[in-house]
Amino acid sequence: MKDILQIYRYTFAYRGRAILVILCNLLFVLFNLLSLVLFIPFLQLIFNPKKQYDLIKPVWDGSVGGIISYTKDKYQYFMQEMVNTDPKQALFFVCISVFLAFFLKNLFRYGAVWHQSELRMAVVRDLRNQLFHKALILPLSFYTNERKGDIMARMNSDVGEIEIAVVAILELIYREPIAIIINVGTLIYLSPQLTAISFVLLPVSALVISRIGKSLKKTAKSGQEQMGLLFSSIDEGLGGIRIIKAFNAIDQIYSAFQKVNLKHQQLITKTFRKRDLSPILNETLGAGVMLSLVWFGGSMIIDMKGGETLTGEVFITFIIVFSQLLRPIQGISTNIGFLNKAKASQDRINEILESDEKITEIADPIKLPELNRGIRYENVSFKYQDDFVLKNINLDLPVGKSVALVGESGSGKSTMGDLLPRFYDVTDGTIYFDDVPLKNCSIRDLRGHIGIVSQESILFNASVRENIAFGMPEATMDEIIEAAKIANAHEFISAMEMGYESNIGERGSKLSGGQRQRISIARAVLKNPAILILDEATSALDTESEKLVQGALDILMKDRTTLIIAHRLSTIRNADEIIVLSKGEIKERGKHTDLMAQKGMYFNLCSLQGIHS
After folding, report:
1. pLDDT, tens digit, 9 for 90 and up, residues 194-252
2. Which domains can be identified in the chain, with CATH numbers?
3. Do residues 571 and 543 lie in contact, with contact meaning Cβ atoms separated by under 8 Å?
4. In DSSP terms, which residues pair with 399 in a beta bridge?
5. Cα 424–Cα 427–Cα 431 angle in degrees, nearest 5
6. H or E element at residue 598
7. Host H or E run for residue 396
8. How far apart are CA 574 and CA 577, in angstroms?
9. Which strand (E) or helix (H) includes residue 203?
10. What does the CA dihedral 100, 102, 107, 112 come to, rounded to 10 degrees?
11. Ordered alpha helix ranges (H), 59-86
12. Whole-prediction pTM
C-alpha cells in the first residue's frame, strides 16, 4: 500500500494536470455511454418503421430525483413526434446525434492523453533527478556493494514502470470505477433482472485475476534485478573492450553476456505472460457472462416474461452497454497488473532513495577559516566492514608542508587520503582542520579547501576549457590559460584543432595519459586549494610524461599543504616528512635521508625500485 501511495503522490505533484486528465476521462466515459444509448431510437425505427406513437407531453414534477426521468421522457417525446412527422428525418437526427457523441467521446479521450503525456514524463523527469542526485551524494562505500549498471537500470527500466503506473493509477481510481458505476446504473435502469444475473457471474473473473496478480510482483522484481545485471554486463564489456580484444576474450565475454541476457529474457517473458493473461481471461470470462445474459434475455423475450419493459431494442441496448462494462473491468485488471509491476520497481527505487548517506552533517556546521596550522590525524582508526584498514594513526600535516605516504599495496595509504575530504568518516578518532573536527564543518566547505590529483585522470566528455574549469564555472579564460601554463599543458592544448574548445572525448580518450594528467593538474591549479592530495599522480605515466607532470606538480605543491600518496618513491625525496605504512599502522617516519640511514622498511622499498641514496 505504501508503494501505491508513493505513486499517487508522484502523480498529484502536478495537481492541475492530473485534474485535467481526470476531467477529460470522466467526460469520455459519459459520452461513450451516451453514444451507445442514443442507438435506442435508431433501433426503434428499424424494428417499427411504420409505427405511429400516441404523444403524451412529459411534465417535470419539480423534484431533483425526477430530472433524469423527465429528460428521458422529454427526449423520447421529441423523437416520437419526429417519427410521426418524418421517419427519415428522425433517422438522420439519430445519426447526427450518435456521430456528435462519438466525436466528443474521442475528443475528450485525446484530451486525457494530451495532458497525461506531459504528466507522466514530468514524473519520470523528477524521479530520475532524485535518483541521480541521490547517487551523487551517496558515499563511495555504496559503490563497492552496488553495480553501476544496476543503478542505471533503476533509472531507466524501473522508472519506466513508474511512468506507466502514473497513468494506470489515475484510470484505476478516477475513470474505471466511475465508468462501472455509470454503466451498472444504466443496466439496472434497462433491466434489473438481467443486471442481477450478471452480478452473480462477474465475481468469478475477479477471483481468477486476483490470483494471477499475487505472483506478478515477485516475478517483475526478479526481472528488474536481472536488468541491472544486464546493464552491468554491457558496461563492463564496453568499458574493458581494449583488454577483451588484447586477451582474445571476445568469445568468453560474449558467452557470459548471452547467459545474463537469456536469463533476463526468460524472466521478462514470464512477467509479460502473467500480466497479459489477466485481460485475456477477463475478456473470455466476460464473453461467457455476456452470452449467458443473451440466453436469459432472449428466453425472457421469447417467453414474453420480460413484460413491456424488455423490448427487443432495449435488450440489444442492454447487451451493447454490458459489453462496454467489460472494458473498465478489463481496464482495472490491466492497471492492477501495471501497478504490481510498478510496486516491484518502486521497491528498487526506494532502495536507492532511502539508502543511508552515512556521511552526514551536523545541524549548524562551523564555517572553516583559512588553514593556519594544518591538518591533524588524532588516534584515527577506520574499517570498511569487519577488519580495520587503519589503526590508531597520529599524524600532523603542517600548513605549507608536504607529507608523503608510502607502503605496500593495501597498507592504507589511499584510505588516509579519502578520509580527509570525508569520502568516508573515521571509525574511531578525529581528524582536525586546525582545531576544528572535520565532522563539525560543512562537507561542501571542507572540499572547497581541497584539490585532488589522482592516478586515474577523471575527465569528462566536454571541451578542454570546461574540464579545467570543472566546478568553477565563473573562471575567466585568462585564469584557465594561466592554470594550463602552470600545468605544462598550454602548448599541447594550443596545438589542438579548436584549442581550449576542443572536445577531449569520453574520459579524455582523445588525449594521451600525460596530457590527461596535466589537464587534471590545471584543474587543481585553477581551484587554488589550501590542501592538495596527490594520489599516485605520476605512477601510470611513461618517463617523459612523468617529467613534464612532475614539473607541474612541483610548481603546484610550492608552499602548499600537500598529502602525497606515492608509488614511485623517486618523486617524494624532497617531501618534508615521509610516513611508512604497513597493515594500517605507521612503522617509520622522517625525511628521505634519515629513513635511508635506518635501513628499515623504507630502505627496502627504495632498493626494490633501484634507489640507493
Report:
1. 888 777 766 666 666 556 655 665 676 677 677 777 777 777 777 677 677 766 778 88
2. 2-14+113-353 (1.20.1560.10)
3. no
4. none
5. 70
6. helix 592-598
7. strand 388-398
8. 8
9. helix 203-239
10. 140
11. 67-85
12. 0.71
